[in-house]
């Protein structure tokens, strides 16, 4: 039973990724712009163009090109970047940690802010405090992540430049990184100056990504908490002397978090999608920033690699959400 | 008398915000170790009395008159936190529906021991020992396994036993039992009733026992308050209520009790004329 679930899940994952591969492969080729022409200086001869076209395999039929590419992909070879002339797999994997750190830091901020707002709103339900939570979250939610980014660039980059709004790290720091997870590695290896610099560089972009999600969590979790707090099983802890806040945190939270979790999972994948523009705004060296360069330069192999990686990331997050849902819900755990 | 009573309710009136009274000048006392039944038809206000004592009145309602003394302490003189503390130290609840009363995502163990350690200040070992002892006392096989279970893994009867064990665990002076057998099937009802009666005697707890079943009243209580539309119609000893009911409504309730011995005689509902007559009498007094 359990094995069948895992197998069917794995199969859907593979089908999904294959579908994404086909779509992205076709899309980048029907989009206007010739990658070879972009690489050559103006006035290159017909011969030069034909030579390069053959080198990258663009002279073959679409179907042939697809199977050559996908044949490489299953062996871990995603092709070579046209502009950077390095293996796509290496390029993409070197940028992935930056985007992962930023996305998860943003998620952490969103859960913290949204969670606290939800608890306060539920604790003071029916009072002006709850109305204030509703009003604020509604306003925050109506501003998308990239506008928050622009606002922060203006505020903290131009008007009141206290925070770094560009890059991942202070370039003056000296440190031999073993990985590209600069914030986590700095923390784990006790180099708090490195970690501090990484987090302060991430703060503005992460906050831009986090605010809309925080507002959504505040609204949704508060609503779920309020529904749980009128359930019969919250009466006993109240009679037994637990305060309303204790009842919310100890008895209601896990029940309310379950329905919230599914939506947060979906919204988190949207948040990762948002990194593309936000990383650009803050010149943050992650996958999203690289994706924009790749699109501008018509670097087809690189675009394909990045899109596939994003797709794989989304699938992995959905899996993770389902898993934690099962872990949090005792009714499903032994099912 | 006031100071020694476990519970003393004086002139308690609870109303909806619209002003409509749900309880009308209720008077009631409960001496240590005594069992008092609250009887009446559905909607009479039985649960409302328990909620007023335990501080769980619905948000739409409020106490408009009267006082509640728990072990001599006037509850309306306390702030919210003090009141919560006072109620938690003096009283416990056996709820009506065991299927919804336990938190579905928490194991049984913390749901019994949490109040003992965090409110009553017991050590974890002492709470654990007491919980196991009481689960054993309410005839649960393999208490250690049950402690690790989630509510959905246990039957309704098991869950009600657990709730009874949890209520008696801190040996509270007062337990409010709100129709604790109504949601269970008949054979289980009898066992649960027997357990509550036995534990009540062993622990010496006073019990406010809410029921609509005069048959249950006869089995469990020494005193009875008969309620109709939020008003106490008759307050007497159980013996006197059955041998010499003074109020026609009480007589009608007794007559309405299904008799297992003589099913042919069973269930003669309270006559509608009597209900109408009582309603108009209450309405008249309200105007005066
Ligand atoms: N949450 C509530 N809001 C408003 N009225 C209520 C609420 N709960 C109960 N009532 C009303 O209070 C009266 C007494 O209810 P209750 O004490 O539950 O009756 P019972 O004797 O059946 O336990 C009923 O008329 C009921 O409609
Ligand atoms: Mg009731």
From TrEMBL, chain A:
Q: Which domain of life is it from?
A: Bacteria
Which Pfam family would be a valid example here? BPD_transp_1_N
Where is this gene product found?
Answer: Cell membrane
UniProt topology in membrane: Multi-pass membrane protein
Gene Ontology molecular function, alphabetical: dipeptide transmembrane transporter activity
- PROSITE patterns attached here? ABC_TM1 (PS50928)
For this record, an example GO cellular component is: plasma membrane
**Keyword Membrane applies:** yes
> Where in this chain does the record put each ABC transmembrane type-1 domain?
96-321
Mind telling me which residue stretches traverse the membrane in this protein?
A: 102-122, 143-163, 198-221, 256-282, 302-328
Keywords on record = Cell membrane, Membrane, Transmembrane, Transmembrane helix, Transport
Q: Does the keyword Hydrolase apply?
A: no
Recorded hits in PANTHER family, A to Z, give: DIPEPTIDE TRANSPORT SYSTEM PERMEASE PROTEIN DPPB-RELATED (PTHR43163:SF6)
Entry's family note: Belongs to the binding-protein-dependent transport system permease family.
Q: Can you say what this protein is called?
A: Peptide/nickel transport system permease protein
Species assigned in the record? Tritonibacter scottomollicae
UniProtKB/TrEMBL annotation, chain B:
Instruction: Establish whether keyword Transport is in the entry.
Output: yes
Question: Where in the cell?
Answer: Cell inner membrane
Q: Which residues form a coiled coil?
A: none
Domain ABC transporter, by residue range, is 7-254
Q: Which InterPro entries match?
A: AAA+_ATPase, ABC_Ni/Peptide_Import, ABC_transporter-like_ATP-bd, ABC_transporter-like_CS, Oligopep_ABC_C, P-loop_NTPase
Specify the protein's topology with respect to the membrane: Peripheral membrane protein
GO cellular component: a single term: plasma membrane
Which GO molecular function terms does the record list? ATP binding; ATP hydrolysis activity
Q: Which UniProt keywords apply?
A: ATP-binding, Cell inner membrane, Cell membrane, Membrane, Nucleotide-binding, Translocase, Transport
Q: Which GO terms describe its biological process?
A: peptide transport
Give a single Pfam family match. ABC_tran
Family assignment?
Belongs to the ABC transporter superfamily.
What is the official name of this protein in its record? Peptide/nickel transport system ATP-binding protein
From what organism does this protein derive?
Tritonibacter scottomollicae (Epibacterium scottomollicae)
